[in-house]
Automatic annotation (TrEMBL):
Family as reported in the entry's similarity comment: Belongs to the major facilitator superfamily. Sugar transporter (TC 2.A.1.1) family.
Protein name: Sugar porter family MFS transporter
Cited Pfam families: Sugar_tr (PF00083)
Record field: transmembrane: 21-43, 63-83, 92-110, 116-137, 149-167, 179-196, 258-277, 297-317, 329-348, 360-383, 395-416, 428-446
Entry GO MF terms: transmembrane transporter activity
Superkingdom of this protein's organism: Bacteria
Residues annotated as domain Major facilitator superfamily (MFS) profile: 25-450
InterPro entries: MFS_dom, MFS_sugar_transport-like, MFS_trans_sf, Myo-inositol_Transporter, Sugar/inositol_transpt, Sugar_transporter_CS
Length: 472
């Protein structure tokens, strides 16, 4: 701080500088979210053109799509090692670079094998981003804004999915699938250019012994020496634990409980069935009686818009009303809407439905997207980056992020089989039941962490408080 300035002017200048740093952090996180969403959304529009050009078998098409998920699950593990060894900042830079290589390489691919190879690289980068960005944000944010900031990251994931669909539509007129795959490199370039200018996480800096730098970053973030000093003291306390990572997990029951909670949260997020709606929305719309391509395209765009808008609800609620009530409402909305979709499907299957039932099914699908967007979508990422103790944070977040990708693959791979064996009505009732069950699990295990510092959450956990009380 400039000593020649009067105190309150100096305070204001420090606050302005802090706001400036935070803005760059949010921008970088936004780009990380955007590339996650773009990559998830882009392939559905490109695949028909690729399959036609190279005459791909169903198995080859499945590989083109799922190679990204295999890469992402691997990326989460790679990221946990990198985040610990070289820090959050450099991990994000490597993630962005791989994304540029993966998307440009996919665009220039001359065979299916080459495309699958570059989709694997792209997946790796998405795994790294989905691991590192929420973790970095949690460690850089103020306790009162942490929920909003990480939900903002998820908002950009939803914007990315929508943007990918719109850009796919734009390029589909010329059938230019190569451009579809290459334009998504743009946010990765922006991410790289922004992250270069950002500081690393003060928690990581302190963990590797760079205490002075860590204090400097905290001061820059808070614009206040006092707050920074207090936070630094808590961080040092958290670092007193001797073991870390897997060693700490084996030795400490409380760490195992945190890992269990992270894994449970991500499994709950995926078994809401949301991605079924995301990946198969044209199929679901056709089950509901909307069979033209135009109807399905309109439906998919509306779904994307609903998803983006509903994430704003989470941003407004998460730090004010809290994580837990928002999650419960979201699971409730999904349980009800999926149950109604099931009723509509059973009437459609029995041939007793008219067009109003088809509309009801389509609207209820949107309601369940809104239920996810306002709750489990963002809030699970918020909670997972908050609940792990500092000394085993990389390990804990790796376990939960891996669970996200593995359960995502399970849900995606079983949907069509479920519809074939149980029928579409019972499949939706199954998901409705699971969402109901998740309300109970939320009541039993999920803590309220709004306005609590990461270090206080850790203290409560390590004192052996019940998981649902570690935020109190
Ligand atoms: C989920 C992904 C999902 C994405 C959509 C994330 O929170 O983990 O599985 O596809 O949201 O935006």
């Amino acid at each position: 701080m400039d000593a020649s300035l009067p105190k309150n002017m100096a305070d204001k200048a420090a606050e302005r500088a802090a706001a400036h740093v935070r803005m760059f952090i949010y921008f970088a996180a936004g780009m990380a979210g955007l590339l996650f969403g773009l990559d998830q959304g882009v392939i559905s529009g490109a695949l028909p053109f690729i399959s036609q050009e190279w005459n791909l078998s169903s198995a080859a098409q499945e590989w083109v799509v799922s190679s990204m998920m295999v890469g992402a699950a691997t990326g989460a593990i790679v990221a946990s090692v990198m985040a610990k060894k070289i820090g959050r900042k450099k991990s994000l830079m490597i993630g962005a670079t791989l994304f540029i290589i993966g998307s440009l390489g996919s665009g220039f691919a001359v065979s299916a094998d080459m495309l699958i190879g570059f989709r694997l690289i792209l997946g790796l980068s998405v795994g790294i981003a989905s691991y590192t960005a929420p973790l970095y944000l949690a460690e850089m944010s103020d306790k009162n804004a942490r929920g909003r900031v990480i939900s903002g990251y998820q908002l950009m994931v939803t914007v990315g999915i929508l943007a990918a669909f719109l850009s796919d539509t734009a390029f589909s007129y010329s059938g230019n699938w190569r451009m579809m795959l290459m334009v998504i490199a743009l946010p990765a370039v922006l991410l790289l250019l922004t992250v270069i200018r950002l500081p690393d996480s003060p928690r990581w800096l302190a963990a590797v012994g760079r205490i002075e730098e860590a204090s400097g970053v905290l001061e820059a973030l808070h614009g206040s020496v006092e707050i920074a000093r207090e936070e630094m003291k808590d961080i040092k306390d958290a670092l007193k634990i001797k073991q870390d990572g897997w060693g700490l997990f084996k030795a400490n029951k409380n760490v195992r409980r945190a890992v269990f909670l992270g894994v449970l949260l991500q499994a709950m997020q995926q078994f809401t069935g949301f991605n079924v709606i995301m990946y198969y929305s044209p199929k679901i719309l056709s089950l509901a009686g909307f069979s033209t391509t135009e109807d399905q395209m309109i439906g998919t765009v509306i779904n994307g818009i609903v998803f983006v808008l509903s994430t704003f609800i989470a941003i407004f609620m998460v730090d004010k009303n809290g994580r837990k009530p928002t999650l419960k409402i979201g699971f409730g909305v999904m349980a009800l809407s999926m149950a109604v979709v099931g009723v509509c499907m059973s009437m459609l299957e029995a041939g007793t439905a008219d067009i109003s039932i088809s509309y009801l099914a389509a609207i209820m699908t949107m309601v369940s997207i809104a239920g996810f967007g306002m709750s489990a979508g963002p809030i699970v990422w918020v909670l997972c980056s908050e609940i792990q103790p500092l000394k085993s944070r990389e390990f804990g977040v790796a376990c939960s992020t891996m669970t996200n990708w593995i359960t995502c693959a399970i849900v995606g791979a079983t949907f069509l089989t479920l519809v074939d064996t149980l029928g579409s009505a019972h499949t939706f009732w199954l998901y409705a039941f699971l969402n109901g069950l998740f309300i109970v699990l939320t009541l039993a295990y999920v803590p309220e962490t709004k306005n609590v510092t990461l270090e206080n959450i850790e203290k409560n956990l390590m004192e052996g408080k019940k998981l649902r009380n570690i935020g109190c």
